[in-house]
Amino acid sequence: MDLNRLSKIRQDLHQIPELGFQEKKTQTYLLTVLKKLPQEHLKIETWRTGILVKVIGNNSKRVIGFRADMDGLPIQENTGLSYQSKHEGYMHACGHDFHMTIALGALFQLASQPIDDDVVFIFQPAEEGPGGALPMLESELFAEFRPDYIFALHISPELPVGIVSSRAGLLFANTSELFLDFKGKGGHAAYPHMTDDMVVAASTFVSQLQQIVSRRVDPIESAVVTIGKITGGTVQNVIAEHARIEGTIRTANASTINKIKTEIELFVKGFEQSHHCEISIDYGSNYYQVYNTKAYVDQFKQIIQSSGKAKWLEASAAMTGEDFGYFLRDIPGFMFWLGVDSAYGLHHSKLNPNESALEVGMHVVEQTIRELKFV
Ligand SMILES: CC(=O)N[C@@H](CCC[C@H](N)C(=O)O)C(=O)O
């Protein structure tokens, strides 16, 4: 598949970002493209809003898996591009339009010229939340497609086009969402002493919460608590009876996340007393770390270094989360970063990846499928 075709697919997908498990238009679009491919080697099944596609090998003994995530984010796009999102308030700001396009490109190449083994392309919903990987992995349908090794990519705006980057072991963090609802007595703006003011309570809580990372977690461990959203109150001259904060916890070690949760719960108990309020905690969805299998990363690095299509860069572990970690907990494999050179990063309303990276990604995925040996 050439760059023009890849670019057309990517721009079509870019215009229809949908949230996790709502990827209906995306699924329909992908199925339409898939139906145009030579069908004799393909087995296509849908799972919720996702799709599993097997390219049946010439003489199959094993199965190779490649996963692409499908969902967008609740972000208002601000790129000014001619193919900007048509879904007001939603954007492919994490590159999943790129991931799906690259998967389709590699699938097209493989369907035209299959290898001996079967290759499964996994179009997985809901990576940003609430998490599609774990329920898909546990589904009866997935058992029919289950690969013997699996890999995936994520775009990296910070890296130039042509760079491929990964590492053995930990690549992405353990994550847990964090939702806290504050309830207390509201009232007239002029009589604060007769209220409990949940806006003051929640904002105090947010700044003190950071001390859990700085004073309760061993500094040798890595941890992040980010609050990305705070809401509360109804109007400017009424003291709020409700506020809500929404965030995420990230740690390099799976056990540290439990330590942080215990500390948050202790802190909440004391805070409820001192601020005369009730706080409910919801941890939302939790993702297991992305931990790459060394034997596969070592081979992948060799393939990249001898490919002439891309350059290798040894990665550092990052605090990003990915439910692909659940696939890697069960099935050996790896994830890698693909350079797309954007001045604005992941989850930014101006993210604008360079489309020439689509071709690099497609070649790297196809070549890896053709050359990587099972270990
Ligand atoms: C690659 C990436 O950006 N992934 C997301 C995953 C989010 C999981 C969940 N909603 C959470 O916030 O914990 C990320 O924000 O790292």
UniProtKB/TrEMBL annotation:
GO terms for biological process: diaminopimelate biosynthetic process; lysine biosynthetic process via diaminopimelate. Keywords: Amino-acid biosynthesis, Diaminopimelate biosynthesis, Hydrolase, Lysine biosynthesis, Manganese, Metal-binding. The Mn(2+) ion enhances activity. It catalyses: N-acetyl-(2S,6S)-2,6-diaminopimelate + H2O = (2S,6S)-2,6-diaminopimelate + acetate. Pathway: Amino-acid biosynthesis; L-lysine biosynthesis via DAP pathway; LL-2,6-diaminopimelate from (S)-tetrahydrodipicolinate (acetylase route): step 3/3. One of its GO terms (molecular function) is N-acetyldiaminopimelate deacetylase activity. Its cofactor is Mn(2+). Residues 180-268 form the Peptidase M20 dimerisation domain. Its EC number is 3.5.1.47. The active site is at residues 69, 128. It is an enzyme of class 3 (hydrolase). NCBIfam families: amidohydrolases. Belongs to the peptidase M20A family. N-acetyldiaminopimelate deacetylase subfamily. Catalyzes the conversion of N-acetyl-diaminopimelate to diaminopimelate and acetate. This is N-acetyldiaminopimelate deacetylase. It comes from Natronobacillus azotifigens.
